[in-house]
Design goal:
mainly alpha; about 90% helix
Length: about 60
């Protein structure tokens, strides 16, 4: 159980870091095409993180 909590915490930290890294260009440039591409990347990352958290530990 402790491994799952740690994996979830690591995934949330990674997601927060990516959002903090990508937020300034989206806010400052306000280019709709770039915003859509970044959102697609974030959604792909969230799906990957969910799969990572759901996998069983070896």
């Amino acid at each position: 159980m402790q491994g799952k909590i740690l994996k979830t915490l690591m995934a949330l930290i990674a997601l927060a870091m990516v959002l903090a890294f990508l937020a300034p260009p989206v806010i400052k440039l306000r280019d709709p095409a770039m915003t859509i591409v970044i959102l697609i990347g974030i959604v792909a990352m969230i799906i990957s993180l969910i799969e990572f958290v759901r996998t069983k530990d070896d």
